[in-house]
DNA sequence: TTCACATTCAGACTATAGTCGTCAAACAAT
DNA sequence: ATTGTTTGACGACTATAGTCTGAATGTGAA
C-alpha cells in the first residue's frame, strides 16, 4: 500500500491537470510556492488542514471529497 | 467566522468526549503527545493529513467526515 | 535545431507541527 | 483538607511544512 502523501500527490496532479492549470498557476492562486506544489505532487510533503482547504478551493472541489478519495 | 483551527479544535474535543476518552488516552492511542492534543483542541495547532487520519481512526470516524464538518 | 514553457532538483532559509518535562489550575471524590 | 485525575500553560527542543532563488532537465512546437 502506497503512503498517504504519495496518494495525495497523485490525486493533486490529476485534479490540477483536469483543471488545466500549471503547478505555478495553482501555486500562485493558492498563495503557495511553485516548488512546494511540486513536492506535494511527488509525495515529498503533506499539507496541513488549511493548505488542503486552499488547494481544494482553487481546484473547485470540496476538501472532504479530496480526503474521501484517500481513505 | 471562526478560524479553521479553532473549529477543528472544538470538533475534536466534542468527538473525543463523545468517545469518553481523556486527552492523554487519545494521544497515546494516536501515538501523539498529550500537550499537542491540548493545543489542537485550543486551536493553537492544526494537524497535517496523516495526523488527521491517525486521530480519525482512534475516534472511529472517517477523516473525510471530520473535514466535511469544517466546510 | 532552437525557442518557450513546465517541471524537477538542490540548498539555504523561516514558520510551524509535534515532543518532552514540569508545574499549576480546576474539578472530583473522600 | 487531601488525594487523584484531567487539562492548561510554559519553555526548550526536534522534525517538517512551506518559501525563495536559481539552475538542470524535460517537452513540445516552429
From TrEMBL, chains A, B:
UniProt xrefs under Gene3D superfamilies: lambda repressor-like DNA-binding domains (1.10.260.40)
Domain HTH cro/C1-type, chain residue ranges per copy: 12-66
Any Gene Ontology CC annotation: cytosol
Pfam families per record: HTH_3
MF (Gene Ontology): DNA binding; DNA-binding transcription factor activity
Keyword terms: DNA-binding
PANTHER family, sorted: HTH-TYPE TRANSCRIPTIONAL REGULATOR (PTHR46797), METHYLPHOSPHONATE SYNTHASE (PTHR46797:SF1)
Protein name: Helix-turn-helix domain-containing protein
Organism: Chryseosolibacter histidini
Lineage: Bacteria, Pseudomonadati, Bacteroidota, Cytophagia, Cytophagales
Amino acid at each position: 500500500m502506497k503512503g498517504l502523501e504519495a496518494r495525495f500527490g497523485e490525486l493533486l496532479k490529476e485534479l490540477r491537470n483536469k483543471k488545466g492549470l500549471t503547478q505555478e498557476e495553482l501555486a500562485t492562486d493558492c498563495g503557495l510556492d511553485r516548488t512546494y506544489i511540486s513536492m506535494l505532487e511527488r509525495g515529498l510533503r503533506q499539507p496541513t488542514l488549511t493548505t488542503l482547504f486552499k488547494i481544494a478551493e482553487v481546484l473547485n472541489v470540496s476538501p472532504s471529497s479530496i480526503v474521501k478519495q484517500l481513505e
